[in-house]
Amino acid sequence: MALNVPKNAVIYQIYPRSFRDTDGDGLGDIRGIINSLDYLKELGITHIWLSPVYKSPDDDNGYDIADYKSIQPAFGTMEDFDELVAKARERGIGIVMDLVINHTSDEHEWFRRAPAGEEKYRNYYIIKKGKNGKLPNNWGNFFAECPWAKFGDSEDEYYLHLFSKKQPDLNWHNPDVMEEVKSIMRFWLDRGVVGFRCDVITIIYKSSLENGKKQLVLTGQEHFLSQEGCHRILQELRSEVLEPYGAFAVGETVFVDVDEAHKLCDAARGELDMIFYFEHMECDQVFVKWFKTRLSLKKLMKTLSKWQSELEWNACYFENHDQPRFISRFSDLGSHRADASRMMAGLLMTMRGTPFVYEGQEIGMTNGDFKDLSEVEDIESHNIFKMAKGLGIPRPIRWKMIQRTSRDNARTPMQWSSGEGAGFTSGKPWLKINGNCKTVNVEDELKAEDGVLAFWKKMIALRKSDETLILGDFKPLYEGGSVYAFEREYNGRKLTTVCNMSSKTVKLPKAIRGRGEQIVSSSKTDGGERLLPFEFRLYACEGEK
Ligand code: ISL
Fold this sequence. Notes:
- It contains 15 helices and 20 strands.
- The chain is of the alpha/beta class and 545 residues long.
- 50% of the residues are buried.
- The structure holds 6-O-alpha-D-glucopyranosyl-D-fructose (ISL).
- 6-O-alpha-D-glucopyranosyl-D-fructose binds next to loops.
């Protein structure tokens, strides 16, 4: 089986509640996406990955699905969705759905019917008796909750939830669950979607419910992380559902290493097209993501090079709805926001694999400017704040932790203009709009010829048209101080990417001089031996024909 994702794809992630509101309720909607299609076409992207738009009580902003075959009323109707698919297709843009199949919402009909005594639906979930008045096992939970909650009115039965209490885990030992998921996937494929982003896909199969080895995070993971059963499920979904439609799948794979990634992405095994790994998201953390330290450029470069060298094809990303904005991680960003964003565009678009751009990244949006926990909505942030209190961490320190790591940092509304509601909404936005919308917004960027957006457009266009960027192999060239350089090569033609990942002007290292003609620079540079703050350069060497 070959890759189904087109190699020249550039995928744009939309977090619908934060993208564009057209009815004034403060929440983005599908109409807002439809109205933005020309903007996205101009940007040059080929696909939109839609974070969940299904019916949901929104305990985890749609990642708790109450009905997989419906649209959240606040986002619009099924007709709106069909219109989106059709109008996107007219512009050469494919729609990718978020497939959340580790868990449902506790408000899903299956979960509601289970405690009412319907054996069929009880078997859809993982329900277990407690042990002598204690919980069924000692596992951990992603959201720092207890992973077991009382099931229905039962005195001693619990259901497993690796995320919030309102997200009961599905039982993937039950063939009926598999059939339901196939039917859900076909439902959307029949409506014209071209692929899926598979939420926390490597934890769906629990091979036992035994106690786990005690760990600081996620005790029990040896029983649910990357189990053989998960690979079998992916193979079945691929051969029976994705292949007949020629659709692709990108997996969100928590705690994955390179060996596991090979298994998941090896075309011959027929599982996923590519994965989102996390290691490069962890270069500014101490052990867990809530304890942040200075971004280690050394670690970042090493990690990028490792994954780029190891996998022939993979998903490339620096931002999504769960991660702080990447440019905000540079400890010395200072007044170089725009330079850093342009540099990241150059880096992302010249890497090997499918680039994913997260909404707002293309105008250099930064972390939310939250001043207090009351301004943060994310369930994970609130849970961690509570847990840290239990550990005796003083409030100001707890707040600092959340301020820097909260997933809401990337979920602030899209900044369309400097006007009221940032052009996102005419109502009260569901999450505080970043005050920097006065200067960081699409409207102003569209007017700026050498702005951030213009550079992202240029790099996206180059990435889609240049064979070496699309098909070339990858070789790391230089990782020193703040300079990162690598080479892409195809049919003897070589392209060299050089990034200065700091606010200091530095010398172009000797090792990467003479790499051919400079074809792009992100700064107003003389092209000489000095790399300006956060400068990106691309050199081309035609080689022998
Ligand atoms: O970022 C994370 C890992 O450190 C977690 O916050 C995140 O929950 C994890 O990556 C899984 O994410 C996905 O599944 C969650 C949902 O809350 C996230 O938004 C989603 O991307 C549960 O469905």
